[in-house]
Amino acid sequence: MSEIRYSVPAISCGHCVTAISGEVGRVPGVSEVAVDVDARLVTVRGDGLDDAALRAAIDEAGYDVAG
User: Fold this and answer.
1) What is the pTM of this model?
2) Strand 41-46's sheet: what is its strand order?
3) Which H or E run contains 43?
4) Vertex 11, ends 60 and 48: CA angle to 5°?
5) Alpha-carbon distance 56 to 53, whole Å?
6) How, if at all, do strands 41-46 and 30-36 pair?
7) Which pLDDT tens digit goes with each residue over 17-52?
8) Nearest residue to 16 (alpha-carbon basis) of 51, 53, 41
9) Neighbours of 63 (CB within 10 A)
10) 20: closest CA among 29, 3, 28, 10?
11) 50 φ, ψ to 5°?
């Protein structure tokens, strides 16, 4: 199992957590999504994670990945 972390500066509330978790959780290979509002981090765990697909899912939720 691998892990990828993304800095998402616009995370600020529970709605953000729900939106991001829902979109990222649909990406094939994802087994866990953790969104830390205080640190503004999204941590994704799973097998065969596709960075481009994960970034696209965060974008689809309405948020930009920093960097």
Assistant:
1) 0.95
2) 2-7, 41-46, 30-36
3) strand 41-46
4) 55
5) 5
6) antiparallel
7) 999 999 999 999 999 999 999 999 999 999 999 999
8) 41
9) 20
10) 10
11) -110, 110
